[in-house]
Amino acid sequence: MTALATAHVRQEAAGARWGVARTVLRLHRAALLVWALAVLGLTGWLVWLTEVTADEARAEQEACDRAAQDWCDMTVGTFGYSAPMDWIAALTAHSSLVVAAFAGGALIGRELENGTARLAWSQGITPARWLAAKLAVPALAVTLGVTVLVLVFRWAREPHRDLIGTAWTDGSVFVALGPAAVAYALCALALGTLSALLLRRALPALGVSVALTWLLTLVLGHFRASLWPSLTRTSATVEADLPDNAWQVDQGVLVHGSPAPDVHDWSCDGTVEETRRCLDDLGVNGSYVTYHPASHFWPLHLVETGILLVVAAAATAVSFRLLRRRTA
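^ that's the sequence the OP posted. Answer follows.
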């Protein structure tokens, strides 16, 4: 009898958990449908660009090369294929702002403001279980959707990189090329939830959620080059060369063998001989350039992803603790 009772209790608990999840799905089915259509639309756009537009752009570019019409290269490359790819990268990378607005406003903030959350808690659903279901359903949808966009974007971009003017160092492209896009979205979901629990009003929480997510994006973008040790190349000439597809972080001259600010532009003007004599007088005996090669993409990307996941986990933990304290 005890075993049967225990099994019955477990079945009821599982049914209650699935019931909360079904309620979340039903309540936010319009938002989930819009999200699914957005992912499907961007995916279809990428497929069209790759299978149709890229071939047309390449054919026109080859015709321009044969005719020696340089202006045509820019027109085809920028407006035909490269610009739409940049737009898709930006939409993928900044989808976290939409997730933050949804989490702070409709997902959590509106229910706290209207009192429907307390109504759910009074019907045998614990606050922790309510919040877990509220987070699990959109987290799954966001993870699946952004993962699809990242994979299709990488598939579409790789064979036609010569048609794209934007390098991997561009902020949106950098995020859209890997799991950092998913981490940004999950972090936005956690920050939106925390903002809603702190403010308990939909519109203020929406604004604060978007602002926090945008601020986090700016901060990580600013310090991105410092997330992994860079390389330095020196040269005996006044200009060190960069490897192909590298991200230049810093450059300057060597004064008596030590890096120094570039004094060439403002201290040494004149003929080649005069410039050389001036540089010799200043002790300039070479140049340096600090950079990240293309092989540093994944270390940089994964470190940023890890930071975002830590922030998301911390915000989620604080949200559960705050909810527990306010409903105790």
